[in-house]
Write a structure and sequence with these properties.
Elements lengths: L11 H19 L15 H4 L1 H5 L26 E10 L7 E11 L4 E5 L6 H8 L7 E6 L2 E2 L5 H10 L1 E4 L11 H11 L4 H14 L15 H12 L6 E5 L7 H16 L3 E6 L2 H4 L4 E6 L2 E4 L21 H12 L3 H32 L11 E5 L11 H8 L4 E7 L1 E9 L13 E6 L12 E4 L9 E5 H6 L12 E8 L16 E10 L10 E4 L1 H15 L8 E6 L5 H10 L3 E4 H44 L1 H9 L4 H46 L10 H18 L1 H8 L3 H5 L3
Parallel strand pairs: 3-8, 3-9, 6-7, 7-8, 14-19, 16-18
Antiparallel strand pairs: 1-2, 1-4, 4-5, 9-10, 11-20, 11-21, 12-20, 13-14, 13-17, 15-18, 16-19, 17-18
Helix pairs in contact: 6-7, 6-8, 7-8, 11-19, 12-17, 12-19, 12-20, 17-18, 17-19, 17-20, 17-21, 19-20, 19-21
Length: about 750
């Protein structure tokens, strides 16, 4: 509501007294206690209490006595006076046909007047109304509204004038179809930065005044023409205007609804509003106190009016739409085109998912290369084998000692393997039936502290030390021993009696003629995949296996062939290649798993470059999609933009609404893309684990999807989307309101 102007030095008590007097007068008007003359000595409030108004579907409901706590008794602000001095308006330019809509129009509309502007179609009536409402600027001449030179005002001040001083009731209603009735009425209040609860109360109150409180939650597109006109009237009263401009308000209504609108305008005029009505119907014009006829862009006064004043009480600086309301309205606009928005969001999600996976891949590989387990894995190991034509395809202790002394060797061990039979010593646990002496292989484990390539267990634990008399049975060997469930063998004692001192007896003829029995405690069950060629058998700690082989060698007079292969652990990844070259220079065969890992890393590097290119292309396409979506939205919502500006939205407000829509699309796409990246990263880690465990003995998170990476991805999507929507948003903000309202 308009603020009160005071003179310099006026006591603050006088200011409060004047404000209180104004509020009491407004309250008296709403309660029907203020009787304004209608020319016949009848009270102005009688419009609401007339039998005709009650009997027919009235535009405004009969007023009842409002409770003292009602905050919205005041429907109107300070009456606005208008003055036009030799105003002309021309359309067209160099490349268009020039049309003169108004020619030297001079007109005064005093505060509180009810003026009808009549004339045939195309005579300039609507153009004149647009100039009065600050929707258009004159080509020449001056337009004054509320004492403000409307043609010279900057866009910001002109928006404030439309928001606080004037409301337009359009012939085509100009409601936003996808919004609810209540949101349409509250839209001017939203633009004015009114708190949510307060604007809801006022919107419902205004809907009650026009008899549509029960339709508050319905979509505006589902209303009849008469109901939409009522909503337009309620919206026009939202910000307590002092000037009501009605453009053919009865043109789309039947006679009953049209008569109700005219009676409403008469009543609002009696309450103090300035009303300017545009019509081509002389019968409608009869409701006005003064008629101005338009002919070929010129104005002819039928009844002379009083000169208007130029200066009026100023209003408080207009508050503006809260950022939360900007986001809400912008995101709501995105939701009106679900399929198009979903496709655009998907484009953003694909680009962000690809980028997130690339970043996660880079981070995961770096962590994997720096992992402590990698220093004792097969990546740092050199496997040494006898040459193909060796007389005895095995190594002895002297060869192991020689290789251990090579430079850059951190640790060395050999693989000892033999074949024989197993047996259970003592009664089996759980009364299981035991098979007699199944055959199998017994193989040494790597050094526990020097290697991370230890088997994964199905049940139980690893041996406590390299010399402990403990054994890891394969699941197949446990079944062969008669255990119905392999884990049932844990805790039992088994014995092994070797028959040959090698895994392949035909290659190394270390036959056992004097058996030696080795008694061991079963501490774990593992898969047969960890045995050479997947054979059934067991793994025994390295030092315990060496001691058993030495006892057999002494008893059977073996002369060599202790190790089927030797493994050297390099002190760093950089020295693996040097160590391999030294081994081969000694005449041995060698193999490094680092070569395989480096090939895998090269493959991932190429894949990373390909994914980066894909991600960049996807993001570019997503940005183009957002720009196209927003540009199309500007074209589709041109009339809506005109409505927003007619209601008082600044260009900045329109810009922020469209940027909020683009931001919403970006945030949604970024969130979906980040979730997809997390899901694909976990699937990738599971797949890579299966490949790398056979090489490194442990799993690595190749895709490291950290929370900061996810947050940065979402923010990047939001930023790119907002930038992509900037140009369409600027186009929307620069729309001329008068031209936008005429857009079809």
């Amino acid at each position: 509501m308009a603020s009160v102007v005071t003179t310099p030095g006026e006591p603050s008590g006088a200011k409060r007294h004047r404000r209180r007097a104004r509020r009491e007068a407004a309250a008296a008007v709403v309660k029907g206690e203020h009787a304004a003359s209608n020319g016949n000595g009848e009270a102005g409030a009688a419009v609401f209490d007339s039998p005709e108004m009650i009997a027919e579907p009235a535009v405004i409901a009969p007023l009842r006595a409002q409770p003292q706590t009602d905050e919205f008794r005041d429907l109107l602000g300070q009456a606005v006076g208008l003055r036009l001095d030799t105003v002309s308006r021309e359309f067209g330019g160099r490349d268009e046909m020039q049309v003169t809509a108004l020619r030297n129009v001079t007109l005064d509309v005093g505060p509180g007047e009810f003026v009808a502007i009549v004339g045939p179609s195309g005579c300039g009536k609507s153009t004149l109304l647009s100039l009065m409402g600050g929707l258009d600027r004159p080509t020449s001449g001056h337009v004054y509204g509320a004492g403000l030179p409307l043609g010279e005002l900057p866009d910001r001040d002109l928006s404030d004038y439309r928001l606080q001083r004037v409301s337009t009731i359009f012939q085509t209603f100009n409601l936003i179809p996808s919004m609810s009735v209540e949101d349409n009425v509250a839209l001017p209040l939203t633009l004015a930065g009114v708190e949510l609860e307060e604007r809801r109360k006022r919107a419902r109150h205004l809907l009650a005044l026009v008899g549509l409180e029960e339709r508050a939650g319905a979509r505006a597109s589902r209303l009849s023409g008469g109901e939409q006109q009522k909503v337009a009237v309620a919206r026009a009263l939202a910000n307590r205007p002092g000037l009501l401009l009605a453009d053919e308000p009865t043109g789309s209504l039947d006679s009953i609804a049209g008569e109700g609108v005219l009676r409403l305008l008469e009543d609002l005029n009696r309450r103090g509003a300035t009303v300017v009505l545009v019509t081509h119907d002389p019968e409608v014009a009869r409701h006005a106190h003064r008629v101005v006829r338009m002919i070929d862009g010129g104005a002819v006064e039928l009844d002379a009016g009083k000169p208007t004043v130029r200066s009026q009480e100023p209003v408080d600086p207009a508050a503006r739409m809260d950022w939360r309301d900007t986001l809400k309205v912008g995101l709501g606009s995105a939701g009106r085109r679900p399929l198009r928005t979903a496709l655009t969001t998907s484009g953003v999600a694909i680009g962000i998912a690809a980028l997130s996976l690339i970043v996660a891949l880079a981070g995961g590989l770096q962590d994997a290369l720096n992992a402590p387990a990698l220093a004792t894995s097969q990546v740092h190991q050199v496997a040494v084998y006898p040459v193909a034509d060796a007389r005895t395809p095995a190594f002895n202790e002297a060869t192991l000692a020689t290789l251990t002394r090579l430079p850059h060797v951190k640790a060395a061990w050999g693989q000892i393997g033999m074949t024989g039979t197993f047996a259970v010593t003592g009664p089996p646990l759980g009364g299981n039936k035991v098979s007699p002496n199944p055959a199998g292989a017994l193989v040494s484990l790597p050094l526990l502290k020097a290697s991370s390539t230890l088997p994964s267990l199905i049940a139980g634990r690893l041996p406590r030390s390299d010399s402990s008399s403990e054994i890891l049975l394969t699941d197949s060997e446990a079944v062969a021993l008669g255990y119905r469930s392999p884990p049932g063998a844990i805790g039992t004692q088994v014995s092994f009696s070797a028959t040959f001192g090698s895994l392949v007896p035909t290659l190394v003829r270390n036959q056992v003629s004097k058996p030696v029995v080795l008694s061991l405690l079963v501490v774990g069950i593992m898969s047969g995949n960890y045995m050479p060629a997947g054979a059934p058998g067991a793994l025994v700690p390295y030092e315990a296996m060496r001691g058993y082989w030495s006892n057999l060698a002494r008893a059977n007079a073996w002369k060599g062939g202790e190790y089927t292969s030797i493994t050297l652990l390099a002190d760093s990844g950089l020295s693996v290649e040097k160590l391999r070259q030294r081994v081969e220079s000694l005449g041995f065969q060698s193999q490094t798993f680092g070569d395989q890992f480096r090939h895998f890393e090269d493959l991932l590097g190429k894949l990373r470059v390909a994914l980066m290119g894909l991600a960049i292309v996807a993001l570019l396409l997503a940005c183009l999609g957002i720009a196209n979506t927003m540009y199309t939205a500007v074209l589709e919502r041109t009339k809506e933009i005109g409505v927003l500006k007619a209601l008082g939205a600044r260009s900045r407000d329109v810009l922020l609404l469209f940027l909020a829509e683009a931001l919403g699309i970006g945030l949604a796409g970024g969130a979906v893309g980040a979730l997809v990246a997390v899901g694909l990263g976990r699937l990738g880690n599971a797949a890579v684990d299966r490949l790398t465990q056979s090489v490194t003995g442990t799993g690595f998170d190749v895709f490291r999807t950290d929370v900061p990476v996810v947050l940065v991805a979402v923010l990047l999507a939001a930023a790119l989307s907002t930038v992509s929507g900037l140009l369409p948003a600027l186009r929307a903000a620069r729309q001329d309101p008068a031209r936008a309202l005429r857009y079809e």
